[in-house]
Amino acid sequence: MAFLRSFIATLTILLLLQLAQACGFHSHGERQLEVDFSAIAELNNNARLSLTHSALNKKRNTKIAIDNVRVFDGSRLLSPATVVIDGDVIGTDPTGATQQIDGNGSVLLAGLIDSHVHPANITHLQDLSSFGVTTAFSMACFSPQMCQSLQNHTGLVDIHTSSAPAAAPGSAHGNIILMIDPSGSLLVYNATQATKWVDTQVAWNPDYIKLIAESPGLDQNTLNALVTESHRLGKNAVCHAAAFDAYSQAMTAGVDQIHHVPLDRPITSGIAADVHRKQQISTPTLTMMQAISNNYPSFNYSASRESVRLLHCAGVPILAGTDANLQPGIIANVPFGSSTHLELELLVEAGLSTVDALQAATSRAAKYWGLDDRGVIAPGKRADLLLIDGDPVADIKATRNIRKVWLAGVEYEGTLGTFTE
Ligand SMILES: *[C@@H]1O[C@H](CO)[C@@H](O)[C@H](O)[C@H]1NC(C)=O
Ligand SMILES: *[C@@H]1O[C@H](CO)[C@@H](O)[C@H](O)[C@H]1NC(C)=O
Ligand SMILES: *[C@@H]1O[C@H](CO)[C@@H](O)[C@H](O)[C@H]1NC(C)=O
Ligand SMILES: *[C@@H]1O[C@H](CO)[C@@H](O)[C@H](O)[C@H]1NC(C)=O
Ligand SMILES: *[C@@H]1O[C@H](CO)[C@@H](O)[C@H](O)[C@H]1NC(C)=O
Ligand SMILES: [Zn+2]
Fold this sequence. Notes:
Largest sheet: 8 strands, mixed
Distance between the termini: 31 Å
Helix content: 25-40%
Number of helices: 15
Shape: globular
Mean pLDDT: 91
Radius of gyration: 21 Å
Low-confidence stretches: 1-30
Strand content: 15-25%
Structural class: alpha/beta
Bound molecules: 2-acetamido-2-deoxy-beta-D-glucopyranose, zinc ion
Number of strands: 15
């Protein structure tokens, strides 16, 4: 599995090299990474074809009545009632249900949406699912075939996928991209060529375009051109920005979402106001920012948290994302699934109300990713559900008491996620 490990390492290094440079992870692009994307894709695709999955497909057609559950309706908990799962969506009429579940007054949430992850295999999808993450957004794709092999797995988290990341030659991220694709054809050289780069990516129909703002890196004109062409072709542009200067660039370029928050110093209230005025969305990935800062105290997590506070005060919509990835020996690991619950807690610590934090991982995420079919519990919506004990409006950590998970109407059958602390 060496190829898989180096692949995951690459993803994470790619995202964080700008930070990692200061910590001895510097790369000059001399090395070449041998990543066998088609072998990984084959493993994932075989899993989709397996008997387990076809059995799960049949479960999609069943009707389930969950009695005596308090539904979180997006702003508060309702009094106990029955929720019907009818095939892969929420139904209305419990008549003829083939399974009856007593919810015992537990709380039912819409399945969680993690807006920033790096899964590579089925285990990662299982981990996400076992913790009630029912939709997740993969944030760097070097092989369409491999990325698509993580999609459409019945009974597992629904994965959406980005393009390759757009980075400049000679930049930290650009050097890593060269290690994966020595031809240089994935790099973005200038504003003129940026247009063609986006066209090439859109040709395989990623769900959104991923851009990297860093210094040194893409200049402002080139970032602007990447955003303009993405929008012309109907794709959102999602931009990595983990330092103060980069954040400002991403804001100026008019990207749709800015991911991460600076670890060097907080943004200003002026920048937060600009981000709001430009109707940009923030996915701060506080979990990752904290993990890096824990490993390397020269990175200031308080600065990251302060930026989230400023963005939230300015009215910028904030989404829950974790940068989940698994690879020993690199700047910071973030486990799949459990981290989404940690992110909710960190968002609350940064100033969001518990209701705000829950929305960041449900209805607000669905809204800004343009997924009308999920994010709330209502008839006709996808039956992505998380049953928990306790009241998450009173204490956000209640989301951790996981009782059951359904993904598009199919109950998660593996071991459910638990927390040790
Ligand atoms: C409700 O309580 C019963 C009896 O303790 C238990 O068997 C059942 O699993 C509980 N339901 C859920 C959804 O946890
Ligand atoms: C997926 O990768 C993890 C390492 O992150 C490894 O432990 C696990 O066995 C892999 N799963 C599969 C199905 O290859
Ligand atoms: C996933 O399913 C959707 C809807 O059925 C389909 O349009 C898409 O091509 C599938 N993608 C993959 C990678 O199987
Ligand atoms: C932009 O980069 C491309 C690819 O390297 C190159 O062919 C072209 O001459 C450059 N254009 C400008 C205006 O620099
Ligand atoms: C870290 O950031 C916080 C918030 O901006 C600031 O108050 C503190 O002085 C910073 N710490 C260091 C060591 O720079
Ligand atoms: Zn990432």
